[in-house]
Structure formats: C-alpha cells, structure tokens
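Intended use. Records like the one below are meant for learning the mapping from a protein sequence to its folded structure. Do not use them to infer anything beyond what is encoded.
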Amino acid sequence: MNPPVRPAEPGVELRSLSARSVVLSLLLGVHPPELPVRDLVSAVAPFGVGGSTLRAALSRMVAAGDLRRAGTVYGLSDRLLERQRRQDEAAEPGTRAWDGDWEMAVITATGRGPAERAELRARLTALRLAELREGIWLRPANLLRPLPADFAQVAQRYAARPEQPASELAASLWPLEGWAGTARSLLAHVARVRRPAERFTAFAAVVRHLLADPVLPPELLPPDWPGTALRAAYAGYRTEVGGLVHRT
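Structure written out for the chain above:
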C-alpha cells in the first residue's frame, strides 16, 4: 500500500491509493471498460500494486459486484458502467446555446423514507440540478444529457423563466467562487506532480470536482472560469493513462 499523498495546495482533498481504486480508475478510463488480468498486472505496477495484491482485490471486487469476469478478462459491472457514463459526461458535457429558459423539476413522489429521499437528492444533483426550495429543482436549460428512465415517476419537468436576474439566481444556487478556487488549486497541483501515484490521486480529485461542476452557460459564470482548463488537463491525463494501458 502506498502512503497517503500529502496535498500540496490549499483546498485540494486527496485520497490514498488502494488496489481497488487503481483498478476502477483504469477501467473507468478505457473503452470498452475491460482488460485481461495480465494487462492489469502491468498497468497497476507503477502505482505500487503487486500481482498478488491485485488478484486478491479482483476477487473481492467480483464478489462485491463491482466487476464481472469472463475467463481472464475483467470488466465493469452494469452499475459501474453508469458511473463511467457520468465520468465521461463530466469530462465532455453536452451543451447547447442557452436561450434564457430554465429547466425545472417539481418532485411529485411522496411517501418516501429518509434514505429514499437522500438517494433522490443525490440523483438530482448528479443531473446538475440545484434545489431552489424543498421539492423544486432547476438549472439553465443548456445541457444535453439523458434523463433516467424512471424520472417521470418522481418528478414533473417544466420550462421556466424566473423573474430574478439569471446571474444572481445561478450564484445563489451554486457555490461558484468556491468551485473555481478549488479548480485553480487542482490545476496548480497537477501541473507540479510527476510520480504516477501522485498524478493518480490528483486526477481522481479532478474527476470528483468535475462531477460537481454545474456546467452553466458562459454568460452566467464568473470571469476566468477554470472549468475548461480543468477538463483539458483531465483529457490529457486520460490519454496518458490510455497509453500506459496500451503499452502493457
């Protein structure tokens, strides 16, 4: 096990490596998301994960439903394929020109317990919606992304044009300055780290942060918004990791 990598920039949260996290990140970054075990052994070596540790982790991940196995090839389970889709979308979100409309979702599902309500909130947040008040979620209608098949069972969608100035409303719904500050710290950190383990943990933090980017229309963003630069840095790292896998 590698020692935890210390954060070099304020506001950057890094997590220590595990064999599971390395395997998942490698598979989440390749298409199709599957690799033979011999390639995984070679690919995880730069991160300090040995062959026996890897094989033990693979067995646990199959048992836990994280991975599926076909002979000597391991691939992401259906549940994690959805995570890969969201990660891909975070790296390259589909957008359209904004005409001023807002997408509004009004929650219609009732009789849910605390755990189900928390799950619904997490799903709505993953769709980059923000809660205006209890049961009412919205965002500028500039995103092109699929909605869950069961979305209509829990919420009704509407197009809206709030009276509040759009830039003020966006700033009240998302912590834009805080997101931008952390993004700049991440960009500074990834620019200076060189070791594979350090870069791995740094870009894992980048992915988590991109998932929280509201992807607002440019006219609603603060000046010098670092979202594009952070995506470009992550795209370069995906190419870097792809080269590592294909060299195996």
